Amino acid sequence: MEFTQAAGPNPLDAGRVVTKPIDRIDGPLKVSGRAPYAYEYHQDFPNAAYGFVLGSSVPKGRIASLDTKAAEAMPGVLLVLTHANTPKMSDEGEHNAPQLQGAEIKQYEQAVAFVVAETFEQARAAARAVKVTYTEAKGAYDLAAVQDKGEPVKSAPDSTVGDFDKAFSAAPVTVDVTYTTPDQSHAMMEPHASVAKWDGDKLTVYTANQMIHWAHDGIAGTLGIPKTKVRVQSAYVGGGFGSKLFIYSDPILAAVAAQKLGRPVKVALTRPQIFNHTNHRPATIQRIRLGAGPDGRITAMGHDTVSGNQEGGEVENAADQTKLLYAGENRLIRTRLSELDLPKGGAMRAPGEAVGLLALECAMDELAEKTGVDPVELRIRNDIQYDPEKGPSRSFSSRHLVECLRTGAERFGWSKRAAKPGTVRDGQWLVGMGVASGFRGNLVMPSGARVKLDREGVVTVETQMTDIGTGSYTILGQVAAEMMGLPIEKVRVKLGDSDFPLSSGSGGSWGANSASAGVFAACEALRDAVAQKAGFNTKDVTFADGNVASGGRSRSLAEVAGPDGVTVEAKAEFGDLTKKFAQASFAGHFCEVGVDAHTGEIRVRRMLSVCSAGRIINPKTSRNQCLGGMTMGIGAALMEEQVVDERFGGFINHDLAEYVVPVHADIPDLDVVFLDETDDKSSWIKAKGVGELGICGVGAAVANAVYNATGIRIRDYPLTLDKLLPRLPTA
Amino acid sequence: MRQFTYERASSPAEAAAAVAKAPGAKFIAGGTNLLDLMKLEIERPTHLVDVNRIGGIDAIEATADGGLRIGALVRNTALAADARVRKDYAVLSRALLAGASGQLRNKATTAGNLLQRTRCPYFYDPARPCNKRDPGTGCSAIEGFSRNLAVIGVSDACIATHPSDMAIAMRVLDATVETVSPGGQTRSIPIAEFHRLPGDTPQADTTLKGDELITSVTLPKPLGGRHVYRKVRDRASYAFATVSVAAVIAADGKARFAFGGLAHKPWRVEAAEAEFGRGTDAVAEAALAGAKPTKDNAFKLPLVRRTLAAAVA
Known about the structure:
The complex is a heterodimer.
Chain A: E1 2-3, H1 27-31, E2 49-55, E3 61-67, H2 69-72, E4 77-81, E5 104-105, E6 111-117, H3 120-128, E7 131-136, H4 143-146, E8 151-152, E9 159-161, H5 164-170, E10 173-181, E11 193-199, E12 202-207, H6 212-223, E13 230-233, H7 249-261, E14 265-268, H8 271-277, E15 284-292, E16 298-309, E17 330-339, H9 353-371, H10 375-381, H11 401-412, E18 425-426, E19 429-441, E20 447-453, E21 459-462, H12 472-484, E22 491-494, H13 511-533, E23 542-544, E24 547-550, E25 553-556, H14 557-561, E26 566-574, H15 577-580, E27 584-596, E28 602-612, H16 619-638, E29 644-645, E30 650-651, E31 670-674, H17 698-710, H18 721-724
Parallel strand pairs in A: 1-26, 2-14, 12-13, 16-17, 21-22, 28-31
Antiparallel strand pairs in A: 2-6, 3-5, 3-7, 4-6, 8-17, 9-17, 10-15, 11-12, 11-14, 15-16, 18-19, 19-27, 20-21, 20-26, 23-24, 24-25, 27-28, 29-30
Helix pairs in contact in A: 9-17, 12-13, 16-17
Chain B: E1 5-8, H1 12-21, E2 25-28, H2 34-39, E3 47-50, E4 60-62, E5 68-71, H3 76-81, H4 83-88, H5 90-97, H6 102-107, H7 110-114, H8 166-172, E6 176-180, E7 186-190, H9 191-194, E8 213-219, E9 226-232, E10 243-249, E11 255-260, H10 270-273, H11 280-287, H12 300-312
Parallel strand pairs in B: 1-3, 2-3
Antiparallel strand pairs in B: 4-5, 5-8, 6-7, 6-8, 9-10, 10-11
Helix pairs in contact in B: 5-8, 11-12
């Protein structure tokens, strides 16, 4: 079923189940510890052996020698895999992750050996007994040193409109500032983990993953076995934030070892390994140039960003939002990628916008100050209802940024903000308010689902879609319940299994809208099948209260289903509406901070996000997403940084004591408001992405509040107190 | 984690004797730091002597001279909540509550807290040289990421900091560490002499002998005055101190100050306290005389000055 034109009225508009703040249907399982995560299928694998990954202690070079004798002789050791005894793997597929294929080292903590033993402790101890020496090669680890070597990338083409240089030099007011953002770690709760088990030539892998079909492709492709012989399961995932879009050594080495040993093998990466062995959000250096009239109307919009990655790695497309967020007739927006030998960079919650807005939205604050225009008003004044590069022919599918900002300003009490920075004091605290726009491009992905109606009148939804803590189980259940005229209690949802129909998976905030569209399509097919089976040969059929009715006749779904039930499968696909219309979700973020006048410690006092994301399928799970995004945004603004030690070519603060993320005490009461709206061009669901919108722009609102509190502008994230102190007046 | 053997001791002297007997043995109480270090093989004991069941060292009792004796096994939560501590040694209660998390404080003991090892990231990375972890391999921190490391009392071998908050308060209170040795001999070590500077032997955090067991920590009679513990860190809770100040300010204008996050031991310069009449900047200047910060942590010097001002404000 293809979505090719704006959605008309459909059964979801009734809003009987959809749009209601329904509790998570998987909540009781989770809070009682009965929802199994990848590492926890203990009952299914009573004889599992334990694997431990030994990572390289150098970032680049070659293994010079590798001696496993001592490790092999240690208690409980069953197998030591190295590049000497690991089968050949393929690196040809996009999602492949070959391991132990040679002596070459390309990343700090790259797997150099895999030790399997009867217990985890034995495997770990033996891994430390593997003796490896390296021949190190020179690498590049400092983004600033290679920023001028950045190359253009296809995924983020330049946007050149009008004559930027001329307009910028002619502008009465200009801002020309460079912001830097550090490498950041996803720091999700559940580590990467996998259990692999063979039955003859059929492999089953339980793994913590966001994208079942990518993992399925990657595991089968890497090992060179047909996908029909591989089953991937990921029913519950303890957070991912992009880290689990991909596979790393754990499923691959578990699979190889399990086959060699003829018994299941389980492996979890340890927290210190995760920071260097997996991926992270790459650091950026971003120059923003804004030219404007005295009224704040932007005439020249310039954004140059550079990030680094290993050869073949992706760019952090930190300038993409700048192509669409504000007006400005002359535009120059460029994204560059330099080569670095740090651990591989990858997607982390709102790749691009999350750090792009840290720069752009602070630069907007600087422009507001220079022009004397209120920061909220400045953003409203530069709102644009169409793609500024393509022109009025490409309008936004829906865009309510102005309403977000106005609603937020009203609710937050923005009018009480002192325009002059450093002038409000409350006891020991210097107090300030900041605002930022939030923007996240709306993405859609094909997504399928199978729905079954059984003789009890229960509908079961099956799809590869994952729930990474986001609420997928619940919202897909709501969509099915609404479509079939059932209460949520009469719907079962099964996720995260490659035996189910291929789905969008969880990434890029496309999951809720796309996977719901898949369930919608399947339910449309089920409605047709049920109506037909009930003998209603008309389109005028209603589904309500567990019954299907037409022309005064009504039959229960259970009765129509009969002993065999009714099963259908369908897939939502998307036409070119995302090309015809610019699609994005929007927010207005408002923050009040206190800065300790003595010590420079920054504490968020209150925060409000007003979000515009189309139909909100479940206000409770959506709010939850935004609260998490706001928390992560506060972390990005104030504390999160993976510290590069250039001597070792990796991140040195590799545990949760030293990679600092916000704790409860850092987070005050946060408030989230969703505008009441639908977007009929996103899908039949009329919803847009929420999960990443929550973080986009938040950190800039914090940073702008810090400026308002102190008059000190820090352009190097995170805003730690050591950067404030040199300019902080005596208390 | 290396394999190890385990036994449970029933008296302090027996525990000390058990450790003396087995080369490479260590005491274990709360285990909140030791077990983490064992998993990383930073600590590699061959034998653990569990002191948790030893009777008579888990109480807080008044001493004859009006002070308090805190048993080695008193948990941080119990110590922080004790009514006598809250009333007469508030700086200690506040320091304890500024450290770790509720769960850790429920398990961590008074003696174990004093023996916490540094949080230097290079100490925690077995792939990197570290003189404290592997003597003679070199210090990765001096030219590395040293933002949270020591600024004073450092050596060419080590710039690690001591991580405990509790110990900073005990230092300002002039506590005494009581120990027992395998033969049953006891020793009283003033807290000032308990932790040491790194010098050429940074592997030794304290002046304790390997088989010497802490039985209690004694606090002298109450000082009175106003008690403050001000801890500065990168987040509001659950982080080690960037800088901390333990202060006791008497009604007559005399004051005592000890500092955390600055050195390999709780940092207190008694002579600097005499400068308090001239203001906190004078105290800070005297306390930090001879500081040798790195480029990364030079900010700690003005931060000490400011935190001290905040503490007495």
